[in-house]
Amino acid sequence: MLENINNILKIDISPEMSIYNTLKNHSYSLGGALSEYIDNSLQSFIDNKKELNADKLNITITIDDKDTNNRKIFIEDNAGGISHTDLEKAMKPSYKPQKQNLNEFGIGMKAASLWIGRKWTLLNSYLQRVDKSKSEQIIFDLDELIQNNDTEVPISYIDSDINKHGVTIVIEKLNRDFDRELIEDAFCTLIENYQYFIYRENILELNLNSTKYNDLNITSEEDVSIPNVLKSRKMITKGKKSFWMGSEIKEWKQNVDFIFNNKRVTGFVMCREPSTQKNPGLKYFREKRLIKGTTRDWNRPIYLLKTPNKHDSLRFYAELHLDKQDISNNKDKLDINEKKFLDTLREQPGVLDILEQARDYRPRSIEQADAHDKNNSKNQKNN
Q1: Which domain holds residue 344?
Q2: Whether residues 187 and 278 fall in one domain
Q3: 198-250 confidence digits (pLDDT tens)
Q4: What percent of the chain has pLDDT over 90?
Q5: What are the C-alpha distances in Å from 63 to residues 41, 77, 134, 183?
Q6: Fewer beta carbons within 10 angstroms: which end of the chain, N or C?
């Protein structure tokens, strides 16, 4: 509860502090932990979009690791901030929002912050705060709280720009060292996770910085864009021989819309052109956030596409939206029977044709297939 003692507001963060101590062992990656803040920011932006009167959410994440003795991570957004009521609930490790949305599990901000570091400061500029000249500040220092056996954290009020809104979080006493490879992987994960908001809907701008490494190789828009669709006749390949089936030049893409686990699944499957080793395969989205299938961690199920280097795995591409399906607390995998899901996908109209074309189409066999056509035409004329 929010308690006012001698004009100092305090938030009760019980139960036992040992629960917070265990959150540092949560099964996160750096990219997964940072995604929790983006989920919160995006949901705040979506919920307050009308009042914000803004077309785009800006989030800046800076890993300040030049000074090895004072490493910090900064996360700042310009969303709607957090209301008093939600702020109180957000500090509880057991709180879970009622609605199913991007920040549905509630534990995200606490778990992510304490996985990264043992001290974090939250500066909250709630869009609808009464006194626009003030922002709320909470300092959560786990070591001090445990040492003092304290279960309350105070809220202080600091001067603020009246036009400021959103949340800034500074994490200190970092639990882990983050080298170039880990930071690069984390930033790539963020771009891939939120590609729909960044490049499709164009409502999110991510500014990702490292003070120590300024030449990171980050996922580009081209890496996550929808590839070109194969346009060709249907090719049949048997052994080393390929030939055309029919004369129609098709665009090998099929929209899908079906029910799985009593929940709707939408999206499309296609043959991409050209095929590539970087093909993510099947992208699974949930609430427009990517859950599985990246350019670095493919989703090319052997059950559906055989071995990763086969023609079908390098050419078959899908974007599937599995909103409302069950998901792990870390939001890194769907809690579904994937074999059953893939069987259901394969049964949808047109999907099997796409799979067969992905398997059989060979650009290098076009001349052979054309020659086969000419021979057939010549034989028909002679007959």
Answers
A1: 231-369
A2: no
A3: 999 999 999 999 999 989 999 999 999 999 999 999 999 999 999 999 999 99
A4: 74
A5: 18, 15, 27, 8
A6: C
